[in-house]
From TrEMBL:
Stored PROSITE patterns: ODR_DC_2_1 (PS00878), ODR_DC_2_2 (PS00879)
Species: Haladaptatus paucihalophilus DX253
Protein name: Diaminopimelate decarboxylase
Keywords in alphabetical order: Decarboxylase, Lyase, Pyridoxal phosphate
Residue positions of the active site: 344 (proton donor)
Cofactor(s) this protein cannot do without: pyridoxal 5'-phosphate
Length: 425
């Protein structure tokens, strides 16, 4: 949906949302969640039907958001511990859950195996050791995917590039580390080597990295077959599907078509059976489904810029990506503002030089397409409680998906040393 359409849609709901749930808040749109998954599923059905979509729960682990995606037919990729719990509570079947993680607690691996998760990623040799111990203890034989790292170029922000030589993730292919772990898995009676995985990174702006990833991992799969006599069943190309924050990015269909073409060509080249394709998108399924809505409290003119100060800032939305920012009131932009939060540090600016209409206290401002990673990275800076999460349902109704935090939610786990308690409060 184009930004103008999104703005119109938000205008229809913004006042009602804020009067019902207060400001600031996060609004999520059920229509977007379903459409994002539907577009990807349709593209896969057309280009590569033997495939599964595992939503990367790290991108948004709100139980309501997860439940909508689960209801739409999506499966899940969960990092251990509370993400795993989130998938359970949101009603996913264990056989629809893929467990990732590069340093999981042994008890989390056991819990996942006891529950019956379908596949586990293996990022390093120590993780394989842990899985072997947990598999023996739980009397299961889990399917595992080896996470590779072919030391490739990844066109995105360095902090979210995960298949580069500098990255901590995956098993290096060239040095033989990936093959050594594959060999140990094949020789063990406690696991089954089901496939290979490569998550290139997040917000991947071109299609070619998926081609490189597919060729590298299928090349590795061919080596595994030749050296160990095992043909893999699953190729997992991870997530990374981008969101158009302020630039054109490849659409879902183009990415999927490129993946499908690469797999077909490379399998023909190595004489491999075409594997089941897994993808683990996070950002693309939820990014454009969420909007942060804040209220201007102060407009402050300084010799440097005019600041519109909202009631929430980088505590609620990291300023990492160039999210579209617009006013809810329907007026032409006449000025530019630095849109800032209220926190006590200078970096608490959400966006600079934003063209906006004349703003005053009480005006609503939207920070759009913040649905991925914002809830997880929201902080308690300045002891600010986190905003509520509201779902705008497809039928036009609202559901509160997470209530606004109180000071007790922020401070309630703290305790005061003995002798410094009551008398000072
Ligand atoms: C293993 C794995 N899969 C999938 C994802 C999702 O990436 P994105 O949200 O860019 O699709 C991540 C993100 O960090 C990841 O680490």
């Amino acid at each position: 949906m184009e930004l103008t359409e999104r703005t119109e849609r938000l205008r229809r709901h913004a006042d009602d949302l804020v009067s019902a749930y207060g400001s600031p808040l996060y609004a999520f749109f059920e229509d977007d969640l379903r459409a994002n998954y539907g577009t990807l599923r349709d593209a896969l059905d057309e280009q590569y039907p033997n495939s599964e979509v595992h939503f990367a729960v790290k991108a948004n682990y709100n139980l309501g958001v997860l439940s909508v995606l689960r209801d739409a037919g999506c499966k899940a990729e969960a990092y251990a511990r509370c993400e795993l719990t989130a998938t359970r509570r949101a009603g996913f079947d264990p056989e629809d859950v893929l467990l990732t993680g590069m340093n999981r607690a042994p008890e989390d691996i056991e819990r996942a195996l006891d529950w019956g998760v379908s596949h586990l990623l293996v990022d390093n040799a120590t993780e394989l050791e842990k899985i072997l111990v947990a598999a023996e203890a739980t009397e299961t034989v889990p399917d595992m995917l080896i996470r590779g790292n072919p030391a490739m170029e990844v066109p995105t922000h360095p902090e979210v590039a995960t298949a580069t030589r500098e990255s901590k993730f995956g098993l290096d292919i060239e040095s033989g580390r990936a093959m050594a772990v594959a060999r140990q898995a094949v020789e063990s009676e406690f696991v089954s080597l089901a496939g290979v995985q490569l998550h290139v990174g997040s917000q991947i702006r071109g299609v070619e990295p998926y081609g490189v990833a597919g060729r590298e991992m299928l090349g590795f799969a061919a080596d595994v077959r030749d050296e160990l006599g095992v043909e893999i069943d699953v190729l997992d190309l991870g997530g990374g599907f981008p969101v158009p924050y302020d630039e054109d990015v490849p659409d879902t269909e183009t990415i999927v078509a490129h993946m499908a073409e690469t797999i077909r060509e490379t399998c023909a080249q190595y004489d491999l059976d075409e594997p089941r394709l897994f993808v683990e998108p996070g950002r693309r399924l939820v990014g454009n489904a969420g909007t942060f809505l804040g209220t201007v409290g102060v407009v402050k003119e300084t010799p440097y810029a005019d600041f519109a100060v909202l009631d929430g800032g980088t505590n609620a939305v990291s300023s990492y990506w160039p999210y579209p920012v617009y006013a809810v009131k329907d007026r032409e932009p006449t000025r530019t503002y630095h849109v800032a939060g209220p926190l006590c540090y200078s970096g608490d600016v959400l966006s600079e030089d934003v063209p906006l209409p004349e703003l005053g206290p009480g005006d609503l401002v939207a920070v759009d397409r913040i649905g991925a990673y914002s809830l997880g990275s929201a902080s308690h800076t300045n002891a600010e409680p986190k905003p509520p999460v509201v779902l705008v349902r497809s039928d036009g109704g609202y559901d509160l998906l997470r209530k606004r935090e109180s000071c007790d939610d922020v401070l309630g786990n703290d305790s005061i040393p003995e002798g410094l308690g009551d008398e000072r409060q």
